[in-house]
Amino acid sequence: MDIDKQEKAPIYEALQRYKSMRVVPFDVPGHKQGRGNPELREFLGEKCLAVDVNAMKPLDNLGHPVSVIKEAEELAAEAFSARHAFFMVNGTTSAVQAMIMSVCQLGDKIIMPRNVHKSAINALIISGAIPVYVNPGINKELGIPLGMSIKEVKNAIACHPEAKAIFVNNPTYYGVCSDLKTITDLAHKNNMYVLVDEAHGTHFYFGENLPLSAMAAGADMAAVSMHKTGGSLTQSSFLLVGKRINPGHVRQIINLTQTTSGSYLLLTSLDISRRNLALNGKKIFAKVTALAEYARTEINKIGGYYAFSKELINKDDIFDFDPTKLSVHTLEIGLAGIEVYDILRDDYNIQIEFGDIGNILAIISVGDRELALERLVSSLAEIKRLYLKDKTGMLDYEYINPQVVITPQKAFYARKKSVPIKKSAGCISGEFVMAYPPGIPILAPGERITPEIIDYIIYAKAKGSFLTGTEDMAVENIRIVEE
Amino acid sequence: MELWFTEQHTENVRFSIKVDKHLFSGQSEYQRIDVFESKEFGTVLTLDGLMMVAEKDEFIYHDMIVHVPMATNLGIKKVLVIGAGDGGTVRELTRYKTIEAIDMVEIDRMVVEVCREYLPQTACSLDDPRVKIYYEDGLKFIRAKENYYDLIIVDSTDPFGPGEGLFTREFYGSCYKALKQDGILVNQHENPYYETYAVSMRQAHRRIKEFFPICRVYQAHIPTYPSGHWLFGFASKKYDPLDFDEKAWKSLGLKTRYYNTDIHKGSFALPTYVRELLAGE
Known about the structure:
Helix content of chain A: 25-40%
Distance between the termini of chain A: 56 Å
Order of helices and strands of chain B: EEEEEHEHEHHEHEHEHEEHHH
Shape of chain B: globular
CATH superfamily of the largest domain in chain A: Type I PLP-dependent aspartate aminotransferase-like (Major domain)
Number of strands of chain A: 20
Oligomer: heterodimer
Structural class of chain A: alpha+beta
Largest sheet of chain B: 7 strands, mixed
Number of helices of chain A: 16
CATH topology of the largest domain in chain B: Rossmann fold
């Protein structure tokens, strides 16, 4: 990486030039640099609205970049060691979908772990690709799904040699990493592409002593949520492409669904964040890791909680661990993760990323301070002091092996009817059911509903998980495929 | 030439002191620290531009934050002071021979160093053998303590900076845990008059009430603090500050300029609007 070149931020600089030109706007957006919406301008600031502009010659065009966006993409590609980097303004969701749709068509098989984000399964609905699920291991004690073990991947390749791609989420929400290098080598030997949902792995490209990044492992594409840990605005993201993929084809796929009014606020936030991480990433992520490490030590001192990290590494389905993640197991104090999550927010004014049945996850990033971590740690100590109870009756998370009866696309478009979830055992689901966050489906369209899945849904709901996915906003009823 | 220190008490109210000399200005890891020399208030310490201590009127604050709880329970032996980098609170505490240990936890070492140099009037007792200074976050320090102190005094900055953690529910809960069965918690409680301060005041009161069976608020008049009217919170697991042994305190023969046993009782008599603000919680 050429550090001098990384000092540049072409989109940001073009916007600065645009502002100084004092152009008279007779184009969209109609707020005309905020003048048409004083309330919004007051709230977001004049500087912000002045650069909320549309594509134009001096600012390039996201769908067909030839000047400053092209240059910014090249700089990003270099920063991430990718063949090409796309600026994404429809969220990492769109990057995940573009990856899958770039290599899979109707009827193609794709090998993936079941604990993917719903955006991946959505891509299957759109493209008509068929999932081949690999069972992610489960850590029984913590109740978290793990990475992909090489044995399971080999097995899936052997059973489905015609599969077009292997999809890996790396790291998982909890920070678990798979052996990406070996998976990539295996896939390439068998003529498969490797697509990596790296939504939580931006920092792997810039920090030191962190797990291997997708591009470094030789993967073919990666979706990187710059906004999650890299500091750009919400919804902005990068799609990285490796050597074996034709970027022109990917751009066409992206343009199928991407807005033609790409937000320059998002684009410039990606540009500036890329520059910041390229120049200061080592220092920033050393600090983030140290903060997370400190918080873990303090939380583990409290007792009862278990803030886990690299000691879990088993070189198989926990091939590596992302030490910037602050995941804490809470069941031993008699509280579900989601209950701790709710208490932290309602009683202590602390918003963490998510809580599930057994764990909570706090995101530590470029923007964190020691003082705030002390608050989190002390609040956890207080929650233990005030709420500690026996853990009997707490449900352990079990991996429920999905029975895929029909493809997600078929199920989604099939004739369906609504039945109470409690009475849906044995039916084929026509919808998703998931807790959000983390957005990993409990049920996906096309899967058989079993009594244990129903129990899990009822338990998660009772504990306060925010369940989503069904047409019924109350998540009492589920639409099933009419057989 | 005229030099004025101005503190913005609200968006629409300013408070200014004519300054003779700007003695010190420095930026610590946590805040900007300044020391001024003024005619009206003597040496003045400000943190991030907010008045902390003034030589001429500091006795009011330090008398009230220390002697009210001490007179309530003369058996206090182990004291924790959080914040209080200027040393004034510790100075008043060291006047009680019966106190055995004073732990002072101040996050910002530079504040203590600056006060030792420019404010010897308050920092004078920091070297008392009973005093131990810890330079760390108060929230962190107290997390590890259980059933240990007789008195905790929270002598913090406002809740909009390094002091923010000291106005939280997790902090008050940790204080409750760190106190013995008859422990007392006293904290500076902001002012009730200006909206932003009053919000912090009510929030602090509500949170303390969740943990302590006895919760009272008392007041003092402090010319250099916003609105001049300042509140203190008194919380205890056992002692009611209005039920105290006046004679016993008087027999100690401590000379004070603001505190006396009448003001002790009277300071708990609050204006109606303050009562109403607190009752709403």
